[in-house]
Structure formats: structure tokens, C-alpha cells
Model the fold of this input.
Amino acid sequence: MRFVIVTGMSGAGKSSALKMLEDFGYFCVDNLPIPLLNKFAELAWSQQSEISKVALGVDIRSGQSFGELEGELEKLPALGVEAEILFLDAADTTLVKRYKETRRAHPLAKNGRVDQGIEMERKRLAYLKKSADYIIDTSQMLTRELHQELEKIFVENREFKNLMITILSFGFKYGIPTDADLVFDVRFLPNPYYIEDLKKKTGNEKEVQDYVMGFEISHIFLEKLKDMIEFLIPNYVLEGKNQLVIAIGCTGGKHRSVTLANQLYEALKSQTEYGLRIEHRDIPK
Done:
């Protein structure tokens, strides 16, 4: 039997995760009262039960009884239940934005500021995040990307590494991405913008890719960049990092940066076990 505790920050996507797990065949219960956790586990684990996969949504909404969760989790092994903890997280700025968009009140800040509620919630959930088997940062994730990550863990049973890597192309004329961890400038590469037939195309098109990668310097840069990223990733994981944004910029964010971002994505896609996504921020501008 698989017994999963789904928890994390309010607004990080726990409800969506539970719906996805339900689609995967899990018996899902959201906001189960904490004092009933062990009784529920005992019933689900009994020989008469036909349930083989369970996911319980547990979070700060439990109120005062949430403080009892740590003790209740410690009792599960005595019942023969090995619980897995899935922790959904997101950056504070992302959580604030989501609350403003939905106009919902934070559970710990019904009459106050959302950011204060988030701060209190982080403190109360710190021990759960530390104990989590899987930490997924949804700050930059699309719904389908979260679905893919959960499917890897809970359906395909693939080994999960708590790191989501975003390769992001951008244009310096529109500003450096504020959430970038690593920034690389490829404005030294020959610019397709000055080729009339390529000017209105982007790095997603073969003609531009062939032009940019038609120079030896582009291949040398890509190889050195790939080597450095592959060296850094496991060290970031050891540090406890779960979100890595690699930003590659050129002047307008349409040709060189898009091409190199695509090349790096393809190079890492077949060699990394970590979550990997690509985004081209400034192509529409």
C-alpha cells in the first residue's frame, strides 16, 4: 500500500495535486482532522480494505490540531504504515500574487496582510518540509508540468530529485529576469537580426538555429556551458536547492538566446533525472 501525505504552503497547488493523484487511482481525502489520521490509516491498512493507494491532504487549515500532526505521523510505523510526504512550495511573491488574483484570504491572515500569513505558515510547516520525501516548487510550473512530475513519482515510480530546472531565454533590452539564479550573455555571437531573411524569424525556427549554430564559437560556448551546468546541478541539490533558473540572454530575446536555450535544453533532457522545462520570455515582444 502507498500512503501519501500531501501538504505544503497554501496556494502552492495542493488541491490540484490531490485531484491529479485521484486521477492516478489514489483514494484522496482533503483536510482530514488530525486526530483521525491514525484511525483512518488503520482502517485503510486493514485486510478487509480494498484501498491500495491513499493520499491525504493535510495543512494549516486544521487549526490548533495541526500541532498534533508530528506526533501522529510518528505513530504510523507502529501500524505498519510507511508514509511518504509530498510538500508543495512556491516563492512568497508567487503566493501573494496568486492570493490577490483569486481574492481569497490566507488561512492565517483573514484580517491581516497575506505576506504575514505566509511568513507564519512557513514557520509552522518548517519541520514538515525538512521531513518531506518530495519537494516540488510550483512557482514557475504550468499545471501540465506538475502533472508530469507527479506522474513520474507516483505512477512510474521513478527516482525523484527535488530540483526543477528552468532554462529561460530573454532579451537584455527588457531587463534581466528577477528570479534568475544563473545569467549567461550570448550577445557576443553573430546576430541573425542583421540578416534580412532571418530578422523576423526566431530561434525556434530551423533557419535561425542553423545560422547561430553555424559558427564554431557557438558550439564551444554550448559545450562549456553544458559542462558547467552538469557540474553545478548535483552541488545545488546537496545545498538543498529545489528551483534553478538558468537565464540566457541576447539583445532582443528572439534569436541567439532562444537558439542556445533550446540547444541546452536538448543537451540536458536526455542526461538529467531532474525536472526540466524551457521558457522563452521575450519572443512575443
About this structure: The mean pLDDT is 89. Residues 2-154 form a domain with the Rossmann fold fold (CATH 3.40.50.300). The chain has nine helices and nine strands.
